[in-house]
Design a protein that fits this description.
Helix content: 40-55%
Order of helices and strands: EHEHHHHHEEHEEHEHEHHH
Radius of gyration: 20 Å
Structural class: alpha/beta
Number of strands: 8
Number of helices: 12
């Protein structure tokens, strides 16, 4: 007797149809990834869009695999439901952790954890002791949560959307891109591994740190491996700050922001250069890309650096709502320009 497919697998290879196909590029940013969740929720709601590929790093990578699994299990609505379920479960885990915001930080307008004693202690301890000393058994709640919520076999088998996760090879210092067909929870952790917080995952004899060091996210996978010419970048890490960092915490935060934006800025410069060659007729046959941007730098810039570790539902839904709003504004202003022109001033933003 022929085995019947599981109900959850019925839409595994059914594309989501739309007038215009786009690729997504999702940055990392810890809890700030809830903004990206809001963006994705609004984009999924718009049936005029087809999603071709998604390239992502760290928290962006988490959103990417949840999105892919949700699409395979239940289409657009299934993806929206699974994204919400994942972030709610993440909030539940964070709320019971030792670094859950103190009473004072629950009233903190910047959503930071500077008045949470356990967070301050763990942060200071991480400067003198590594995760290999502090966590010898490699206990990782995020790994458990990923395996609980996501069916990685379904993610690997689905053909609705191409998925690429960026990580940094610790030995070579080069970007490593993991494709859909190989992704497991370990690959997601590799893309999200902050070396002072998490033990580096080992995959095929190599160890990896956060993809933000070398690709936040890498754009080239969707250029070379996807048909769609439009790339919507969801940018989380502030590129500019007016204030001068003067204490150790703000200096370290700004160092990380500069580092995590550097690879993206270099790649955007390369895209701008190649685009100009194509437009000038000096690269016949070149693939003309159209770049777009959804961001909330004006909001995220005012958040404390430690807010990336704040997992309260109030904070996550605050960012989610902003993400939906910004995506809605972007769609209203730019949908008709998809496939026609780039809508972000690359020179002003990244050059």
């Amino acid at each position: 007797m022929t085995a019947q497919p599981k109900p959850a697998d019925m839409t595994t290879n059914t594309p989501i149809a739309g007038e215009k196909a786009v690729n997504l590029a999702l940055q990392g940013g810890g809890s700030h990834g809830a903004f990206t969740w809001g963006v994705l929720d609004r984009l999924l709601e718009d049936e005029r869009l087809t999603l071709d590929g998604i390239t992502a790093t760290s928290a962006g990578g988490v959103n990417a695999v949840v999105l892919a699994d949700g699409l395979a299990a239940g289409g657009r609505d299934g993806a929206r439901e699974l994204l919400r379920a994942f972030w709610k479960k993440l909030s539940d885990v964070a709320s019971s952790s030792i670094i859950a915001p103190s009473f004072f930080d629950q009233m903190n307008a910047t959503f930071g954890l500077e008045h949470t004693p356990a967070y301050v202690f763990v942060d200071m301890l991480s400067r003198v002791m590594s995760p290999y000393q502090l966590n010898p058994f490699d206990i990782n709640p995020l790994r458990d949560l990923l395996n609980e919520v996501i069916d990685f076999e379904r993610v690997r088998q689905q053909r609705i959307i191409k998925v690429f996760l960026s990580a940094t090879n610790v030995r070579t210092g080069k970007v490593k891109v993991f494709a859909r067909e190989e992704i497991t929870a370990e690959h997601v952790l590799a893309s999200a591994c902050l070396p002072f917080i998490m033990r580096a995952p080992e995959i095929d004899g190599e160890i990896y740190w956060d993809g933000g060091f070398m690709g936040n996210p890498a754009i080239f996978p969707v250029i070379y491996s996807c048909e769609a010419r439009d790339v919507i970048l969801v940018h989380l890490t502030p590129t500019e700050r007016a204030e001068r960092p003067t204490n150790s915490r703000t200096i370290l935060n700004r160092m990380q922001e500069v580092s995590f934006n550097s690879s993206l800025m270099r790649e955007m410069r390369a895209i701008a250069f190649v685009t100009q060659l194509i437009d000038d007729g000096k690269m016949p046959g070149g693939k003309r890309m159209f770049m777009h941007l959804i961001e909330a730098e004006d909001i995220i810039r005012d958040l404390a650096g430690s807010s990336k570790m704040n997992g309260t539902w109030r904070f996550l839904t605050h960012l989610f709502n902003i993400g939906r709003e910004r995506a809605d504004q972007w769609l209203n202003a730019n949908f008709d320009r998809l496939g026609v022109e780039t809508t972000v001033d690359i020179a002003a933003r990244y050059l």
